[in-house]
Amino acid sequence: MKIYKFFYNEALKKGNAAVLKEKYISFFKQDSEYEDKGSLYNNLSMATAFISVVTPFKQIKENFKALLPKEIELKEEIKKLMVDETLSSEIPAQTTENFENYLSKEWEYFNGEAYSNDNLQILFAAMNDYYYLISRKYFLTKVDLLSYQMAQLEPTEKLQFSSCLTP
């Protein structure tokens, strides 16, 4: 709380208190969302762990059936990430391709006798790209807040002078 008050007072001197407050609100919102979205990734990872061990066919079918609601949630979250302003310039072309492929249909991961490894790779690529982007968004939001805080410490005169130097 002391850090917030310090930077709030600095921002107040420069007339930037409202912007700083919004950046804090945005960061704390992102912090909360990051935990929820990270939980989705962790739940998906746990729900697919059975793939790495010998599992009876009947249990495999049941496990994939139980995975479906989590997959629906993952697809909804991916759609949100793909249009997120914070990430608009951060999503690599390969990630966009992975997401579009994953979102294009419901994938079958088991044919009754064997896993479909190609389809599982599509799922795992989407999961990993999802986790990378939620982490990236958290990082970018935090950097934005910290950069704005640092800007509040710069002397006003220096800021005014440097703005005269740029064409």
Q: How would you characterize the overall build of this protein?
A:
The structure is a single chain. By secondary structure, this protein is an all-alpha fold. It has one domain. The protein contains six helices and no strands.
Figure out the total of helices: 6
Largest sheet: none
User: In percent, how helical is the residue content?
Assistant: over 70%
Amount of beta strand? under 5%
Low-confidence parts lasting 5 or more residues at pLDDT below 50?
157-167
Number of discrete domains:
1
Short summary of the structure?
This protein has 6 helices and no strands. With 167 residues, the protein is mainly alpha-helical.
Explain the layout of strands and helices.
Elements: H1 2-14, H2 17-47, H3 57-82, H4 93-103, H5 117-153, H6 156-165
Which short descriptors sum up this protein?
single chain; 167 residues; disordered C terminus; elongated; 6 helices; mainly alpha
